[in-house]
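Notes on consecutive records. When two proteins share a document, each keeps its own sequence and its own token line. Never mix them. Below: protein one.
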Amino acid sequence: MDIRELTEGVSVAPQIAVDDMAAIKAAGFASVISNRPDGEEAGQPSFADIKAAAEAAGLQALHMPVVSGQIAQADVAAFGAALTSLPGPVLAFCKSGTRAATLWTRSQAGQRPVAELLARTNAAGYDMGATVAAMAETAPPALAEPDVRSDIVIVGAGSAGIAVAASLLARDGGLDITIIDPADVHYYQPGWTMVGGGVFDAAQTKRMMGPLIPDAVTWIKAGVAEFLPDADAVVLGDGRVVGYKRLIVCPGLELHWDGIAGLKDTLGRNGVTSNYRYDLAPYTWELVQGLNKGKAIFTQPAMPIKCAGAPQKAMYLSGDAWFRRGVLKDIDIQFMNAGGVLFGVKDYVPALMDYVAKYDVSLNFFHTLTAVDGAAKTATFKVGTPGSDPKEVTVDFDMIHVCPPQRAPAFIRESALADAAGWVDVDQATLRHKTYCNIWSLGDVMNAPNAKTMAAARKQAPVVAVNVLADIAGKSAVGIYDGYGSCPLTVERGKIVLAEFGYGGALLPSFPEWLIDGTKPSRLAWALKAQALPQVYWHAMLKGREWMAGPEKAPL
């Protein structure tokens, strides 16, 4: 049994067995509530059997079945009434305990502060952030006085969060700033492509979080459960409430590994890898070194994703390694792209196609990875070519590099800050929220139509900083973001196609063409990626030194 206490009088649990009743009685419970319909799955005990065993053990039993995702207010009211009428303590259960926890949470609307509801359910292992958000539509939950107040609160201590904090402090060292992030470790994620290509050691991309956060910033080491923008507050996963005058949202996106059936069970073995995870990038290089013949698949999901060129970078560096070893002729490289083009900015495609030809890559467009069977070494794709009915194909592999589908975290997707697609809804020039004028967003979770790259965040941080400070001074926005993003495409060891572009695919080169022509492979661009940019990241971007990143001024 896995009994989880919500209050002294109410606990919840995953499915209990008929033989558990004596132990439940011995634990002090007087009643059980089943929130699970009979016959949901094979082997599930019927409520009749549960009730008979419960009554034999001296427990009262009540059947209040609900279907996941279809809990009505009448179900909530009935559950709340049962908690009052049944002798307690009460143990409610369903398949996982989530429906029982949801019913309890919703039954407490208006009776307990939202912070307490989230703290109790979080401690029990149930994320009720979305439930609390839904409750607000009918009966707004009570809001406790904030436990912490700060003039500027930043959610997320990744590239964007630390950079914008540093940019703010570089302009006004006396600002009261709080940053919220649960992580102990900070990663230079652009380096993982180089780890997977045998160029960097993984340890080069990892540092402890604490020393990177500016000394003048208060760090709350916790996750966010809920935004309450109408109350100028953020609720943490442990139930604490943080109040703010201005909020900056940049927690990074979520890699949705579960979006591909079987993937999580085989990552890091059976020839299945991904440079999108710190612990897996070294395995990519191990596989590349060990493969002398066979089929290597590289996948790219539907946009948006973090660094749209990263799946190709892995492919090119792998092809280059096989070319240098003289085994490329025996390796079948397949690029499976859910989209319909190799790269979204056409000016860079000719150079990339030269390398597609060099490595004899087969390009397969409109192929979306849906399942991986590591033991069988097969990958299944949904093929949705325009103008034809979708079909399913299964392909064998010896090695597969997977780029997972990506999305904003649940506490963003299900919040009042999100647009219909689940991304923070901002003005694409000022990066200010379209509805809440004291909220800004940057980095991967906002919905401006730009590439989601570290280079983009480097340009966005100063824009948000100057606009927040302008707002504090009672002025209009003074900085605009032009959509800049950079994708250094590692086409071979020692050469890079340095793609730099903004909104609408406009080319935004940082260097004169005679120095670096971004549409052609360049050794100087490789030196920039391999040697200069990591130093710029650690010692400039995260320190508020805006080398070639100053904000563009808003038109008067």
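Protein two starts on the next line and is unrelated to protein one.
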Amino acid sequence: MRNTTLRRLVTGPAVAGLLLAPAVLPAGGANAAPADAGAVSSAVPVPAPGRSDDARTRGAVMRTLQRMTLEEKVGQLLVTYAYGDRADTADPAAVAANRRIHGVDNAEQLIEKYHVGGIVYFAWSGNVKDPRQIAGLSNGLQRAAAGQRVPVPLTVATDQEYGVVYRVGPPATQFPGAMALGAGRSTADARRAAAVGGAELRALGVNQDYAPVADVNVDPANPVIGVRSFGEDPGLVAAMVAAQVDGYQDSGVSATAKHFPGHGDTSVDSHTGLPVIDHTREEWERIDAPPFRAAVRAGADSIMTAHIVVPHLDPSGDPATLSEPVLTGLLREELGYDGVIVTDSLEMAGVRQKYGDDRVPVLALKAGADQLLMPPDTAVARDAVLEAVRSGELTERRIDESVYRVLRVKYRNGLFGERYVDPDAIGSVVGTGEHLATAQRIADRTTTLLRNDDGLLPLAPGRRSVLVTGWGAATTSHLASALERRGADTEVAETGTSPTQARIDAVADEAADHDLVVVATNKAAGSAAQQRLVAALEASGTPVAVLAVRDPYDVAHLPDSGTYLATYSYAQVSLESAVKVLFGEVQPHGKLPVTVPKADPSQGALYPYGFGLGLPG
């Protein structure tokens, strides 16, 4: 596992590009085709003088690379998913899904067939049921990789951003997410959250986290980033990104800053469409670039691409994932990044609209990417890259550059010496009392109070009848439990994201029979039904406290709400913190990390960046 000392040993000033010594090129030059499909290329990367790699790492990487066939090397660039809670799953549903997607029964066969370099975990693929199961799956995957002709350990990755995007849930420690950390303004808290999260992931066999989000959320209507961002201020986001890169990587987990060149000013979700960002080059330098520069300086092991078009950076109309001017010109050459560039999922619509699934992997590698994440068809992606090498469109030397970077991270993270985890040690790392307490302390410094117009807060001690309503079965249940621990009698009436008018009327009638209403909103700015619910509750005559458990922007669309808190997250620690604020147990220390515009944005700001009230007394 990598510690600070080791990181300083193997990480130094970045040098763009990976140079090759002419002496190791095969006869016929860099584009010469191998004698046969199984031939081992001798076009192995030789770091130029002054590179940051220490001699031991460089030698180990090159010895491994020299043993690999072209097919094995291309496999190292593929990161995909497999269904099942075990590497050798025989569950009929998982087997059927794997056959449909990959033409194999399970992850073991996937690794054997394609020599994939990485597996990514999701809840929907059945990978993350509980900590012991996750550790067993990780060990099974690594055993399958160790059984290959060249036993390269796997990258095991997941999206554990915390807050509203996470794959590994409780009992693993949950943190409040990026925008909440931005509201807390503490880089120490951001680093500590990443360090704890990284340690828990590593204990489960996960060695790469697709976090932190380095996007600067300057568009309140952004449908895909929002609270996943630390905020709208490039300096704040940069500081938080650097802190989290340090935290994850000092715990032995590769951090992944995403989504380059910046996904924070878009009104289109790249999962379903192709966003176009009209930032000029100067705006990009001022707004989007600082967090990625900070990630590069911090030595981030990987940076993820965005499926967005930025015409002022590349007028071709190609998404950044497929853009050589963006990935090689900006990220490699101008920012000096020589870590691993991983694409965002190649299943997303944003990268598939212009080219077919057989061209996208080749174009991504030509642009400068190293890892191909979740190609829609693994066989098509692999075969397309192999054919591109054989035809001369891609050189094997270019493949070697990417494989070198991928292997280098695996060596740095100690995976060649310590690829397995101890399931019996999970309890001493994952979800410990110390970690849970740390998460709660951090969350308690993030809650933001935007309105206390009627002086409702802090609530006086004593029994009261509370109706808990609004979005989320788990959210309303957690809130009710927290209120009950403080002496309240609660009734829960969860209403979802789009309650019917009949449901709104029924809940509003119930409100009149209680002393207090606590209502949770989730993206109410885009939900007329949630807005009507809050208005009806306010009209009931019972005091109402509104908790925005995702976007702070909701407040502009709830003009009648007199008591309004923003948690930026529905993690249990965030909900507990909000209830603490309601009762005055903690001050609402959080300050808005974004500007909240009025309901009509052309009318200016409702609450400025940095706004946040304290409790009286």
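For the record: The chain has two domains: 4-30+57-68+158-428, 444-607.
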